Amino acid sequence: QVHLVESGGGLVQPGGSLRLSCVASTDLRGIGEWAWHRRVKDKQRERVALIDPDGTATYIGSVKGRFTISTDNSRNAVYLQMDNLKPDDTGVYYCNWIGAMDTWGQGTQVTVSS
User: Fold this and answer.
1) Which runs of E-coded beta strand occur in the chain?
2) CA 26 – CA 95 distance, rounded (Å)
3) What are φ and ψ of residue 25, in 5° steps?
4) Is pLDDT at 105 greater than 90 in this prediction?
5) Which of 14, 51, 82, 100 is the most exposed place for a label (fewest CB within 10 A)?
6) Judging by DSSP bridges, how do beta strands 10-12 and 108-112 pair with one another?
7) Sign of CA dihedral 47, 94, 58, 33
8) Does the pLDDT of residue 29 top 90, yes or no?
9) Separation CA 102–CA 19 (nearest Å)
């Protein structure tokens, strides 16, 4: 069974940056897709970014140009670099591995506030 452990959330001022990390407990052998989702206040959970095994990434419109998803297969990890953060980005962020099983991290809180 694969477990995902997230880190990197926190409090940041508008315009600031954070880098989220998510590491799998087992060797995923570079298989499957990775995604980051978030649940923001008064909204349903939404997928923020997705990256496939070839490294092709897609983003929702509100984060394009500000967020970057990347992977490190040697570390069985996915990252989300978030720049120029806005208060509307505040929420709980979840990593998700879409492989043999659909596996989720525990979530990490991101708060953007002055």
Assistant:
1) 4-7, 10-12, 18-24, 33-40, 46-51, 57-59, 67-72, 77-82, 91-98, 102-104, 108-112
2) 15
3) -80, -15
4) yes
5) 100
6) parallel
7) negative
8) no
9) 23
Q: Check if the beta carbon of residue 88 is closer than 8 Å to that of residue 62.
A: yes
AA identity, residue 78? V
DSSP conformation class of 62:
G
Residue 99 CA to residue 87 CA, distance in Å, equals 32
- The residue whose two tokens read 């060797």 is 27
Beta bridge partners of 40: 91
Rounded Cα distance, 7 and 107, in Å: 9
Tell me whether strands 18-24 and 77-82 are parallel, antiparallel or unpaired: antiparallel
CA–CA separation, 48 and 93 (whole Å): 9
Alpha helix (H) ranges present in 13-69?
A: none
CA of residue 34 relative to chain centroid, distance? 8
3 state SS of 61:
helix
Phi, psi of 107 (to 5 degrees): 95, 145
